[in-house]
Amino acid sequence: MPVCRPGALEMTDERNALCTWINETVMGKPWRRTVAITALLLDGTIGETWIFNNCAIRSYTMPPLTAGNPQDSCPSDLTEELRFTYSEVIIRP
């Protein structure tokens, strides 16, 4: 996930896995997942990957459906947040 501002992450373009996870959690289906986050640093290099095992969604906040300045590649008002619990984390360089 590219870091566009310090502390800010972008979701991948393909969101099917997240949508499926949320829907299956709501429907009571098996809801534990593995979540991997790989940092794409500001200089374009790939940073560490954090792998979170046995995750459960705690909350999800969808960004507003209206966009701010279309010239801003990473507007701060389009924050999307996913909070989850996990049983184990592995960090790979």
Tell me briefly what this model is.
With 93 residues, the protein is mainly beta.
| Form type | flat
Overall pLDDT score: 77
> Strand percentage, roughly?
35-45%
Question: What Rg is obtained from the alpha carbons, in whole angstroms?
Answer: 15 Å
Portion of residues in helices? 10-25%
Structural class: mainly beta
Secondary-structure element series: EEHEEEE
Q: Tell me the number of structural domains.
A: 1
Largest sheet features: 4 strands, antiparallel
Low-pLDDT runs of 5+ residues are 1-9
Task: Count the DSSP helices.
Answer: 1
Based on DSSP secondary structure assignment, what is the total number of beta strands? 6
> In whole angstroms, how far apart are the ends?
15 Å
Helix/strand layout:
Layout (H helix, E strand, L loop, with lengths): L2 E3 L2 E2 L6 H11 L6 E8 L5 E16 L19 E5 L2 E5 L1
Antiparallel strand pairs: 1-2, 3-4, 4-5, 4-6
Key terms for this structure?
93 residues, mainly beta, 4-stranded antiparallel sheet, 1 helix, flat, disordered N terminus
What does this structure look like?
The chain is mainly beta. The chain has one domain. 12% of the residues lie in helices and 42% in strands. The chain contains 1 helix and 6 strands; from the N terminus they run ββαββββ. The strands form 2 sheets. Strands 3, 4, 5 and 6 form a 4-stranded antiparallel β-sheet that branches. β3 and β4 form a beta hairpin.
